[in-house]
Amino acid sequence: NAMILHGADAELLERDQALDMVPAIDAGNSRFPVYGGLLQRRAGNARHDAVAWGYARGADMRGVDIIQNCEVTGITRDGSGRAIGVETSRGAIKAGKIGLAVAGHTSHVAAMADLRLPIESHKLQAFVTEGIKPVIDTVVTFGHGHFYISQSDKGGLVFGANLDGYNSYAQRGNLPTIEATVEAAMHLMPSLARLRLLRHWAGVMDMSMDGSPFICRTPVEGLYLNAGWCYGGFKATPASGWCFAHTIARDEPHAYNAYYTLDRFARGYAVDTKGAGPQPNYH
Amino acid sequence: MRLSCPICGERPLEEFNYRGDATVRRPVSADLSAAAEWHDYVYLRDNPRGAHTEHWRHGGGCGAWLEVERDTLTHEVFAVRLAKAGKGAAR
């Protein structure tokens, strides 16, 4: 209902309809039986590298300088506290306005402007199997273990589940989570049991205190924030970028991101869609 | 990454539940005048890339609350002590 009210399609599927769409699902799973499904028929996949390169080329064509291998080491402030530039591993860059969008390292960089944020960095492990013939033609998510799985066009199955659950910037995960993730996969699709894992890594997630992002100004003049996307940032990229650009250009949020401010907790307007409270590892 | 419970010894990681930063201070006052303090305690975190002092609970074991000093980049565990004997303990 919430999705439909916001203009996204959402169809409830009967058990047989769900199982027909994804034959790989074990219909006889009695530990976590499938009773039905929720389908967003209009949705699709995007290849993450292609999206990143597409935006990079587009920005470059419009005169944006993209400087790689250049680490921000400080945020320069003037006498009034306004952010007026950054220090980097390759020199200083002055700026009229600075937009901060560094995902899992948001707290780390924001601290350079003396900001403490409602964010904890956690890691989410991801797994890719060896390539096989097409077996799944959609993205399947499963309540048990917060599990998701899809198949890439190279044939590998891409899947993952819950966060490890503790603050980490390590970009690698620990074994209990691997076991729990693979267990969820086996409950749902035991036919995948013989597949070999080819790739495995962990990303640093900027988990916010209510599971919702920040696209806003900060208490530091001239510094704008786009962060707190937890593990769901990629699919929001076009919209979040658009709202961020609006916020930076106009120095105020668009209606779409009006709720996503740093001060929402103090004002009693947390956007806690999971209802889990101010515990980042629960979101 | 291994945690060594002071009571139970070294136990598998899945026996432990993570709470978070142990250095935040719960405000003493329940007054509205302490609202900003409460906000900072509940919502704001240092979230460092490096040494971190945090609370875990040995939920799958003895149930004790622990204070752990751990590096969030390397996962090296420097110390594990009972929370009530730790830096984050109530004054």
Task: Describe the 3D structure.
The complex is a heterodimer of chains A (283) and B (91). Chain A has helices spanning 2-5, 15-21, 48-61, 106-110, 175-188, 237-250; strands at 11-14, 36-39, 72-77, 83-88, 91-94, 98-100, 119-129, 140-142, 147-151, 157-160, 197-208, 214-217, 223-227. By secondary structure, chain A is an alpha+beta fold. In chain A, strands 8-9-10-7-11 form a five-stranded antiparallel β-sheet, covered by helices on one side. In chain A, strands 3-4-5 form a three-stranded antiparallel β-sheet, with no helix packed on it. A three-stranded mixed β-sheet of chain A has the order 6-13-12. The model of chain A has no long low-confidence stretch (mean pLDDT 95). In chain B, the strands form two sheets. Chain B has a four-stranded antiparallel β-sheet with strand order 3-4-5-6, with no helix packed on it. Classes of the chains: A alpha+beta (283), B mainly beta (91). The interface between A and B is medium-sized, with 28 and 26 residues.
List the helices and strands and how they pair.
The complex is a heterodimer of chains A (283) and B (91).
Chain A: H1 2-5, E1 11-14, H2 15-21, E2 36-39, H3 48-61, E3 72-77, E4 83-88, E5 91-94, E6 98-100, H4 106-110, E7 119-129, E8 140-142, E9 147-151, E10 157-160, H5 175-188, E11 197-208, E12 214-217, E13 223-227, H6 237-250
Chain B: E1 3-5, E2 9-11, E3 17-21, H1 35-43, E4 51-57, E5 65-71, E6 77-82
Antiparallel strand pairs in B: 1-2, 3-4, 4-5, 5-6
Classification by helices and strands of chain B = mainly beta
Output the strand order for the largest sheet of chain A.
Answer: 8-9-10-7-11
Mean pLDDT of chain B: 93
H/E element order of chain B: EEEHEEE
Low-pLDDT runs of chain A? none
- Poorly predicted tracts of residues of chain B: none
Q: Tell me the radius of gyration of chain B.
A: 14 Å
Give the integer mean of the pLDDT values of chain A: 95
- Main beta sheet of chain B: 4 strands, antiparallel
Helix content of chain A: 10-25%
Number of E-state strands of chain B: 6
Q: How are the strands ordered across the major sheet of chain B? A: 3-4-5-6
In which range does the helix fraction of chain B lie? under 10%
